[in-house]
Amino acid sequence: MSADSDAAIVRAENVTKRFGALTAVDQVSYSLRRNEVAGIFGSNGAGKTTFFNLLTGYYVPEEGSIWYKGEDITRRPIQQRVAMGMMRTFQLTSTFDNLSVVDNLVLAFYRAHRSVSLWRMLFSTCRAHRNEPRVLAALETFDLGDQRDKEVRHLSLGEKRRLEIAMSMLAEPEVLLLDEPLAGLADSEIKSVLEVLGRQVGKQTIVIVEHKVSAVKEFVQRLLVMHEGRVIAEGGYDECMQHPEVRRSYWQIDARQRGDEQ
Q1: Are 48 and 230 in contact (CB under 8 A)?
Q2: Which of 61, 114, 212, 243 could form a disulfide with 15 if both were Cys (CB 3.0 to 4.6 A apart)?
Q3: In whole angstroms, what is the distance from residue 204 CA to residue 232 CA?
């Protein structure tokens, strides 16, 4: 284990997931500390997304167990995990592209905190709730103030990604899990997304699954590196990047295919 189990908010013990003859995750153990910013990294096919899906409840492991705040959640469904405080960005972040940014935030807030049906919110007016303090705070925190009245369909990909994360934050999860949140973004958009996420450091537990690890090297505090379903390294960025198994299994592959990431 990478941390004392007493300090872990999320803990996986020897989890294994198979798809027919393929073992996608093979006896992986992992501990995530409270308010830690962690990354799960590996080349395509390394098993990182499958492991992420095990943590978030999309898959159930054939072997092993997953714990959240000392409670066994191995077979807990997704929505129970959300209610307990674990959330992937898209679990509550389906945007309404024909609505404004602020109205999307209002809907996210009320779905998470109020017993008001979504249809009632959609077909009544959101105006009375646009000045909800937590909605206004989200606009400011995620640099969306200038876009508050813009329809979501007119946002750039980076702006929409920030909106999706802001909508998840409004549900106030204890653990926020992000599956390749930087995919498809330009360098300036990556910088913007990481800047707003950086404001949550120390306030919230954040896990990022990422392929382009160089983009998050200044952001994550600890990496878990996977290859062929197994953990091959764990620790700080520089420590993991110099690990012989990482250099052999990841960089030799990527040096031919994506040498710009070195």
Answers
A1: no
A2: 61
A3: 27
The SS3 of residue 9 is: strand
| Separation CA 135–CA 139 (nearest Å) | 6
pLDDT in the model for residue 114? 61
126-171 per-position pLDDT tens digit: 666 788 888 999 999 888 999 999 999 999 988 988 898 888 888 8
Contact 93, 168 (CB under 8 A): yes
Predicted TM-score of the model (pTM): 0.80
Helix axes 101-113, 133-141, angle to 10 degrees: 130
How is the chain split into domains, by residue range? Answer: 1-90+175-262, 93-170
Q: Sign of torsion, CA 46 169 7 54? A: negative
Helix and strand counts by DSSP (H, E) for the chain: 10, 10
Q: Residue 88 — φ and ψ, nearest 5°?
A: -90, 150
CA within 13 Å, CB half, 95:
24
| pLDDT, tens only, 198-240 | 888 888 899 999 877 888 888 899 999 999 999 999 999 999 9
